[in-house]
């Protein structure tokens, strides 16, 4: 079975954007996309639809500081046009140059969010230089009464547990800083494959809503359990089984970010302060473990593979190279010596399934997926008795991108970009829920 390419809207947009004409839609929800990569949020939101509302991306920013050639930004412009797209370090962009908007979205890096001065300090927050969360905060703060009503963010799930010495401290800083700006916040760790999508990719999604919005008021008026397992945005979009009220974690957040930086979870640093789902309103948070409740169809890796006649020969693994792959995937116990201390130790790792099972969802795509060299973590499938790596198109499909979305750069770079991307289907489903719930 081939992966159906259903992104007809994007093909229409390509025709318009080839001349850098701004794409206009009947939209109430003006949206900006930060840390845009190759446009995963945009694809998902523009696939979401409603009879009354749509999303319109009015500004986007993508900047990769570690590379001279801005591959992701180039692909973004190729697919969506250059109109209102910024390929500039976000820290150097004036907030006054960013159009007013209703929603801000982005997949920001997981970093150390600690601060050196507090919200109460007249000089404001002094976070670590280069930490991109504070650029989001800067936009929200400087927009003031024109700050967006909604925020939708994505990050690795370890955000809820970082740093290891104070589990949850960084996420507590995010929650408290959003609370200071008048937002309620919901979050959920979502494994895309558990809701019928083709990749086992666990990420935390964060949705913030400003005071006086429907989302905020619902959180304010409903019971804690109802918010977590029935009425919150994530419960409505990605169903879970009923939550046991006695197992809900709740606590107050300090409004002093330096206090959080220095003291959050210091007494029990190895205990998780935040679990897989939760919400925060008025400085109080509630969190719980979850059990998925999904009865729809499931996707498997084999459904998304290209026809073998279209697979280039360089993706196939010859017999000599195959032994290297088997070694990388196999169980190991190796004596090593620490370079600094001279201490001898045993490095061990278990075996991995080889080749990858095509009758299950794929493993998580990583940034090092590309290239022909043998690797423990790259995908390898066996088709008609032959072993091969996944093609860029197959990697795109596993993230639910259109075929050839990243075409124009090397195969290794295309794999890297997909390793950095998100699963578009998650954003599309969240977008549909937002469209249904927003004020007319």
Fill in the keyword field for this structure.
alpha/beta, two-stranded antiparallel sheet, Rossmann fold, DNA Methylase, Chain A, domain 2, 440 residues
Number of helices: 13
Number of domains: 2
Which sequence of SSEs, written as H and E, runs from N to C?
HEHEHEEHEHEEHHHEHEEHEEEEHHH
Secondary-structure-derived class: alpha/beta
- Coarse shape: globular
Poorly predicted regions are 1-25
The CATH topology of the largest domain is given as Rossmann fold
The overall strand count is: 14
- Under CATH at level 1, the class of the largest domain stands as Alpha Beta
Describe this structure in words.
This protein is α/β, with parallel strands linked by helices. The protein has two domains: 8-296 and 424-437, Rossmann fold (3-Layer(aba) Sandwich), CATH 3.40.50.150; 306-357 and 366-419, DNA Methylase, Chain A, domain 2. 27% of the residues lie in helices and 18% in strands. Helix 1 crosses helix 3 (71-80), helix 2 (40-47) packs across helix 13 and helix 5 (169-180) runs antiparallel to helix 9. Residues 1-25 have low confidence and may be disordered.
In short:
This protein has 440 residues and is of the alpha/beta class.
Topology:
Layout: H1 8-17, E1 29-34, H2 40-47, E2 55-61, H3 71-80, E3 85-86, E4 103-107, H4 133-143, E5 150-156, H5 169-180, E6 183-191, E7 202-210, H6 214-221, H7 224-231, H8 233-237, E8 249-252, H9 257-263, E9 277-281, E10 284-288, H10 319-329, E11 332-337, E12 344-349, E13 380-383, E14 386-389, H11 392-398, H12 411-419, H13 424-437
Parallel strand pairs: 1-2, 1-4, 2-3, 4-5
Antiparallel strand pairs: 5-7, 6-7, 6-9, 8-10, 9-10, 11-12, 13-14
